[in-house]
């Protein structure tokens, strides 16, 4: 039976699942320091340090486990990988409700990072089961799913905490993820035939894994693009509230306005992502990627000299529009530029690259803002995107001369 007959059903179920995963991984952000403060008697500096360590821990684990999960997916199938990671994530989130000290929370956050394979393997499953002429459309919708989840997560978490409690919010999220596990188990179809040669393969180094791709140069540059994009977004995200407070002259309802401004990129991406996907299928994904790079540079730089919070909010929304052109394009190019039997590994490596970018971006933004000011972070982020764009155009002929179909 052909997977292509079931691609629409797979897409909508996995869209729901990645939406829930986005919520699960982002809902803790608003109240994580509050939860940590409940787990011990910490000073302000200790609380800040522990919050940073706990936040970073899951991404650090992802860096080291993404290749392992990718290898497993290519050997045993993407559906099985989605099942394992969704079940593991559900149990981990549920157990966070019962932490008695910060070290237990840290261990569970590391486990959350260990099971952080739902999104890349859902992408790989959709990419391999969707007709090639619909790949851009499908992946754009899927990116809308997890982007919406990351957008809704902090709001959803805040509401749960307000109505119930922090601990109950972890339970509810865990149960929602378990519902996705059940939907995937019963309704997602993948007719995977393992490659006997892959089953006999031994663990390889990162370099050897990369070299196994038919177009190693292309894959490496896609990973570099992913790192740069995460540096761009995550150098800014931790500073948004502080920057908004400065723009509002330390007056007014800063928390509400900051929440709205923080949501703007996600809203922009959700609104236009499918449209960019269809344009990519029609005119060439590489052209949409180029457009996204140009828009990102034009929209990020002015945020550094925003005169008002309204100006800043509008350009945060426009940044989401540029992300809608870039992120699905990267996924589509990776899906089309790698053989189907290695798609799982390709997307897991991409997930690892994103985790590297998140860690670098967060650290870079903190250092730059502490030495100079918040606005300099925007200028440096725009510079990172500009340099990456120039290098890609010079070094990657597939993105310069072809439709990358």
From TrEMBL:
InterPro entries: MFS (IPR011701), MFS_dom (IPR020846). It comes from the Bacteria. Residues 10-400 form the Major facilitator superfamily (MFS) profile domain. It is found in: Cell membrane. It is a multi-pass membrane protein. Pfam families: MFS_1. Keywords: Cell membrane, Membrane, Transmembrane, Transmembrane helix, Transport. This is MFS transporter. It comes from Apilactobacillus waqarii. The lineage of its organism: Bacteria, Bacillati, Bacillota, Bacilli, Lactobacillales.
